[in-house]
Predict the 3D structure of the following.
Amino acid sequence: MAIISLEYYSEVLGMNREVKVIYPEQNKVENFTGKEIPVLYLLHGMSGNENSWINRSGIDRLIRKTNLAIVMPSTDLGFYINTTYGMNYFDAIALELPKVIHNFFPNLSTKREKNFIAGLSMGGYGAFRLALGTNTFSYAASLSGVLTFNGMEEHFDDNPAYWGGLFGTMENFKGSENEILPLAARFEGERPKLYAWCGKQDLLYSGNEYVANELKKMNYDLTYETADGIHEWYYWTRKIETVFEWLPINYIKEERAF
């Protein structure tokens, strides 16, 4: 596969942005046609950027025989939303970036059934927020995602400048388009298939349990898994392979060297 660094000007954000793209290579992928290539948008967590998945997971090696392109953008610490301070990261990724990517890589599919999204921690929230806030992605996966702020209200009080800059007050956040469960309840159209995983020793475990149960009550097609684990890359690098196996692609798994 090829790893490509793409710098482009975002009209939405009013600045240059960089995105990493993993592009499948014809001589590595069996029955490669080079047309309508499936695309996974893969999102980083807090403190990460567009390089995190490549640097921390070895993901490029994991998919080198699979016909899948991976697009890795960055929203800094912006939680993949349109913030109250005017940085519209949601619009930049949900609406603008797919057009930018297709302009540079016209062989990547624009069909909903071949566009997927996944992420870890903040990016797990982002994956569900983007999938449930658009009709762009047919599959969405969260690894240790921040899927609810129930029980985390003190964060808004401890750092009001940051959290308020993102979501406003907790009162503004509750029931808004940025809260996953109300967003899921209002979703219209063909629902995306969802996957969530969280370690049992993770600080976000109880929140994931709650959201998973509520999504199942809404009859979402959700695959929810747990196991022993904390909020750490060791687990995410392994569970991303489970996501590949879950996606409707012909994932060719390779033996790990680590």
